[in-house]
Amino acid sequence: MVATEAPGLSLTEALVRLAHLVQQVYGDVSREHDLTPQQAQLLCLLVDGPIGMSGLTRALHLEKSSLTGLVDRAEKRGLVARVRDARDRRACLIELTGAGAEIATRAHDGVAARLETLAAGLPARQRELLTGVVGAILAEDAARTGRTWSRPEPEGPVAAGVNGR
Amino acid sequence: MVATEAPGLSLTEALVRLAHLVQQVYGDVSREHDLTPQQAQLLCLLVDGPIGMSGLTRALHLEKSSLTGLVDRAEKRGLVARVRDARDRRACLIELTGAGAEIATRAHDGVAARLETLAAGLPARQRELLTGVVGAILAEDAARTGRTWSRPEPEGPVAAGVNGR
DNA sequence: TATTGTTATACTCTATAACTATA
DNA sequence: TATAGTTATAGAGTATAACAATA
Q1: Using the 8-state DSSP alphabet, how is residue A48 labeled?
Q2: A150-165 per-position pLDDT tens digit
């Protein structure tokens, strides 16, 4: 695999098809772990620590009521837990349970492994270039829309000892 | 925008975030045209001509019963029509209505325009390289799984005069 | 008043299983 | 028997609107 010519493939077509492929990988891996793609996305977002509902709505681009349902179902399945936010009694933080963390890690690794496999044939220089170009596109979008595709920044001093329970 | 360094972004992370971005664009554009993303995807697949239900299940990676519902709703909204396949009386072909074709074109162009905007800052060489690399990844997936991301090939002689109705 | 989150409601999307009709 | 598609059913995902509690 050398990535030479693009046989009649436009840039936008390429991006759309690539997105479908990644989505398919996500769906396949989720299913292997008995998760829906949305649950897998939620879990992967939480691996670095708890996030509040508001932060999650921004990260997932969902209405808050949609998120309530998503978290409800994940909580019912024992994947996540709601913990009260000590600093704001209206708010809560969503954190992974032990089981949730384990599944999240496996799902994340599974997706990474499959994508790595697909990109395995690319020369290192092309891999770097691809990463860089995608980074530039993401940055352009972030500058344009204010969207962030990583974890939302905590908006205040980080909770201390909130996990006490 | 010059696409220089990738600040701590791995290749797989980059691909996942790019996929989310494209999906978001798809969702935004769909909504502008009062479509669900799934309906938009269906419509865009049909712009080059009618496809049978079986071909659509392969192209969309859906169970046939899921597709029945999707087509039902699109048909109820006047976007597509089922036409009998003259060569196989079990089968039917899904085609765009006039209204459906118009919306499909606008949605497709809308997605393309937004993605073009995001990539507008990239030098031509990087654009070409991105397209080529993505093409290679898609080819790798196709070789690995047999998946096809373009229109399904018609499996027999193309219908002649099927639209007669 | 504004923000955080939930509830109520109505659709859409999806899969599994069972079915009909045709090949 | 196998294939093309539908129906029945159940659950998940999503949005809008109205609400409660807290800031």
Answers
A1: T
A2: 667 665 434 333 333 3
The answer to whether B156 touches A31, Cβ cutoff 8 Å, is no
Using alpha carbons, select from B110, B130, B133, B137 the residue that is nearest to residue B43: B110
Taking only the tens place, the pLDDT of each residue in B127-137 is 999 999 999 99
**Does residue B30 approach strand C to less than 7 Å at its CB?**
no
- Residue B55's nearest nucleotide, by CA–C1', is D4
Secondary structure string (H, E, C) spanning B42-110: HHHHHCCCCEEHHHHHHHHCCCHHHHHHHHHHHHHCCCEEEEECCCCCCCEEEEECHHHHHHHHHHHHH
Which of A128-132, A134-138, B160-164 is least confident?
A: B160-164
Residue B27 CA, nucleotide D8 C1', distance (Å) = 30
* Cα separation of the two ends of chain B: 53
Whether the CB-CB separation of B25 and B115 falls below 8 Å is answered with yes
Pure H helices in chain A: 11-32, 37-46, 53-60, 64-76, 98-119, 124-145
Contacts with B17 (C-beta within 8 Å, 6 or more apart), sequence order? A134, A138, A149, A150, B9
Q: Is A108 helix (H, G, I), strand (E, B) or coil?
A: helix
Domains of chain B and CATH, by start? 12-122 (1.10.10.10)
Q: For the whole model, what pTM was predicted? A: 0.89
Q: How many degrees, rounded to 5, is the angle at CA A143 between CA A138 and CA A146?
A: 95
CA A119/CA B144 separation, integer angstroms: 12
Which chain A residues 58-117 have CB under 7 A to strand D? 61-63, 65-66, 69-70, 73, 88-90
D6 C1' to B66 CA distance, Å: 11
With beta carbons less than 8 A apart as the criterion, state whether B141 and B49 touch.
Answer: no
For residue B61, give both structure tokens: 């990676």
3-state secondary structure of B140: helix
